């Protein structure tokens, strides 16, 4: 990117997310390449800020959704990372994992699926064992809504029908799969994919279920489960990562089905069949700061965004471009941004090879 180009990304994030993601190491690296990560001011209307070349967001309340729609009405072709409709799918744990069932990967010996699960809408259903039809204990009880709040992360491991009576619907009962205490977190940033190993729930034996007095255990207490014979460090060290090709295929398929560019998914491997994998969760815009080298990875992603080229009357103009020939400008649909500085916003068609919207707004200075 040339020195006179400036690509601004408005970052609409909750305070905790802003502090963890917009660390000085990322902000400065992006800035060195002409990319400015600008926090959106929550005390002002979004439409009164910018204009931004792109908006990066992780807010889910109705007020934000309305503001973003209003902003896109004024700047209809600003790049939004990611679309509201695509993100909404991940807010429900059933629709979230349906995406996995839409995938078709034929190469390799690995198989993938979603654990068996049922939805519980009302408390009365928990007293009727029909709700367990097709499931067997233990099961994981997860809130149906997955919107990033503390409540949506409140989960339990349930061992028997007694434990079911402690739950508060609406929720999802997902059959627990023994997986050796290791979970694979797969981070996706555009075309980039990174798989890392993390500690997970230890395997649950029949004896453990029989000896459970309360019939359940909260996830916050699971670190004490079979602590005397569970060596977290050894399990992680010995665990082999899934084949890279398999991970790439899964990530590529989910990226296409979900229509998202920033997400991660949790993958476990059955303790009984080493080529059998389960996708158990998908998250939008996860904690990338936990991923080694996230600054360079995200900066490259933003760089690629601002170098997606648009074709204007036979000419290619970068998304971050700030000057345009007046003869070309006279032929385009435009709105005046600053008359004194001859700054205008153009709405133009782009080449079919680009993976952004079919039309885009560019703010530029008209030159002779």
Task: Describe it.
By secondary structure, the protein is α/β, with parallel strands linked by helices. Helix content is 25%, strand content 30%. It has 11 helices and 20 strands. The protein has a 5-stranded mixed β-sheet. A 5-stranded antiparallel β-sheet has the order 6-9-7-8-12. The longest helix is centred in the C-terminal third of the chain and has 15 residues. The radius of gyration is 24 Å and the shape is globular.
Query: With helices defined by DSSP (H or I, 4 residues minimum), what is the helix count?
Result: 11
Average pLDDT figure: 83
- What is the strand arrangement across the widest sheet? 5-14-13-10-11
Largest sheet: 5 strands, mixed
Estimated radius of gyration: 24 Å
Structural class from helices and strands? alpha/beta
Low-confidence stretches: 226-230, 309-325, 334-344, 348-368
Briefly say what this structure is.
With 368 residues, the protein is α/β, with parallel strands linked by helices.
Question: How are the secondary structure elements laid out?
Answer:
Elements (H helix, E strand, L loop, with lengths): L6 E7 L1 H7 L2 H9 L2 E5 L14 E5 L3 H13 L4 E3 L2 H6 L3 H9 L9 E3 L3 E4 L18 E5 L12 E3 L2 H4 L6 E5 L6 E8 L2 E8 L6 H6 L4 E3 L13 H7 L5 H15 L3 E8 L6 E9 L9 H13 L2 E4 L2 E4 L4 E3 H4 L3 E6 L4 E7 L9 E9 L1
Parallel strand pairs: 1-2, 1-3, 3-4, 5-14, 17-20
Antiparallel strand pairs: 6-9, 7-8, 7-9, 8-12, 10-11, 10-13, 13-14, 15-16, 18-19, 19-20
């Amino acid at each position: 990117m040339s020195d006179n180009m400036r690509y601004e990304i408005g970052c609409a994030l909750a305070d905790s997310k802003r502090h963890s993601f917009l660390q000085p190491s990322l902000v400065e690296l992006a800035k060195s390449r002409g990319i400015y990560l600008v926090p959106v001011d929550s005390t002002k209307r979004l439409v009164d800020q910018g204009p931004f070349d792109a908006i990066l967001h992780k807010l889910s309340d109705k007020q934000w959704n309305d503001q973003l729609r209003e902003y896109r009405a004024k700047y209809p072709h600003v790049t939004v990372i990611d679309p509201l409709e695509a993100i909404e799918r991940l807010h429900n744990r059933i629709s979230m994992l349906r995406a996995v069932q839409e995938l078709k990967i034929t190469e390799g010996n690995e198989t993938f699926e979603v654990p068996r699960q049922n939805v519980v809408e009302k408390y009365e259903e928990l007293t009727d064992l029909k709700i367990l039809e097709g499931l067997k204990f233990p099961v994981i009880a997860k809130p149906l809504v997955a919107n990033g709040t503390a409540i949506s992360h409140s989960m339990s491991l349930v061992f028997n029908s007694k434990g079911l009576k402690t739950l508060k619907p609406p929720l999802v009962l997902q059959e627990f799969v023994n997986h050796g205490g290791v979970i694979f977190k797969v981070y996706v940033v555009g075309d980039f994919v990174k798989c890392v190993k993390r500690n997970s729930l230890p395997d649950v034996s029949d004896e453990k279920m029989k000896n459970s007095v309360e019939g359940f255990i909260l996830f916050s207490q699971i670190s004490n489960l079979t602590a005397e014979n569970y060596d977290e460090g050894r399990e992680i060290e010995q665990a082999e990562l899934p084949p890279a090709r398999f991970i790439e295929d899964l990530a590529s398929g989910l990226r296409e089905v979900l229509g998202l560019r920033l997400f991660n998914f949790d993958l476990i491997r059955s303790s009984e069949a080493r080529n059998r994998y389960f996708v158990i969760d998908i998250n939008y815009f996860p904690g990338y700061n936990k991923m080694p080298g996230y600054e360079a990875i995200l900066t490259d992603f933003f760089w690629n965004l601002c170098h997606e080229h648009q074709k204007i009357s036979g000419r290619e103009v970068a998304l971050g471009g700030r000057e345009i020939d007046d003869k070309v400008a006279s032929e385009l649909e435009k709105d005046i941004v600053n008359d004194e500085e001859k700054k205008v916003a153009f709405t133009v068609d782009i080449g079919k090879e680009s993976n952004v919207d079919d039309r885009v707004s560019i703010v530029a200075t008209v030159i002779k």
